[in-house]
Amino acid sequence: MKLGILVSGRGSNLQAIVDAIESGKLPCSISIVISDREKAYALERCKKHHIPHVVIKRKDFGNVQDFEEELIRSLRQAQVDLVVLAGFMRILSAHFIRAFPMKIINIHPSLTPAFVGKDAQKQALEYGVRITGCTVHLVTEELDSGPVIVQACVPVLPDDTEETLSERILAYEHRVLPQAIRWMAEGRVKVEGRKVQVIGAKYGTLPVNPQLEVF
What we know:
GART_AS, 33% helix, Rossmann fold, two-stranded antiparallel sheet, EC 2.1.2.2, Formyl_transf_N, phosphoribosylglycinamide formyltransferase activity, 9 strands, globular, alpha/beta
């Protein structure tokens, strides 16, 4: 499976994908990485691993549709099979989503449908929940609300700050995102309405300190 990965920041989830590919755990290749920020550290990771990459900035276009058309053009030119939003800090329109129907996945730092949108970790702290986590979901036109492929639960500790909670969640993001991509690559993700079934996945009660299927 050929991946097109959209990033905006330091690219730690991109690195997790790269590590999984290079270790042989993920049967994919990265055809292109697109950043909307020219100073994103994710681009340095691309250079280190010789990954094709391009910067497409919103401010270089007269409107959002022209910006997204360039994203679409670049992804199609790279012949990607799956678009991965790995810390891409822009809300994509229905126009973009319809260009890759059910072929876009996102990693979000909460257990959706709770705490969608920006600052999900801050929202969780302010609400006072004891458990939060991260979600890999298919992208639909409703923000952070597409069918869930996999989630991981993360405890919220009494002395947590937004930064400490974010880092704890991020460690799980690095595990579940490559896992979800592998399931997609193997053709095991089946969607019926809002429900996702992963063919052959191990469901049910997990032991303490569970190990994910691949990692």
